[in-house]
């Protein structure tokens, strides 16, 4: 705390701040001798003032041989020389970094909005296209399981099938997760028994 007070406070407020630190430490049970000796030791440390650079300063692009010559000349004549890298044609024209298109970048956060206004936000280490295909495959597995559960035949191609038409619609279960298991009616049991008898 004393270091902070010495580095931040102006000279006119420093004595008041040091008294406040003493009072706070005394009230928290620190011994008087310890607090006083630490504050005295910290305030008696001589401050080393850095000398500001005298003379003119030159900033030049660095060239081998000539740069060292200017540096030596600056020491003898009393000016300081700093070097910077020069802009070259290479820095303007050459770009070593390959730019990956946004759809091929791995590690994306994505949002899928369903037709029923539900949305799913996810994060993947794969590319967006690969993750989208994984979602479509999962949706197709779900739809095939639903069709199999209901005993229907698949009427159209899967979602990622290239033969799929734009206008086809599929029946959708409202709600989340798998649909509830359909209760078998008397007719369903009758159909199953007939199928077993024909085999």
UniProtKB/TrEMBL annotation:
Domain of life of the source: Eukaryota
Domain Helix-turn-helix: 1-39
InterPro entries: HTH_animal
Provenance organism: Trichuris suis (pig whipworm)
Disordered as annotated region, ranges: 150-199
Organism lineage string: Eukaryota, Metazoa, Ecdysozoa, Nematoda, Enoplea
Biased composition (Basic residues): 171-183
Name of the protein this chain belongs to: Helix-turn-helix domain-containing protein
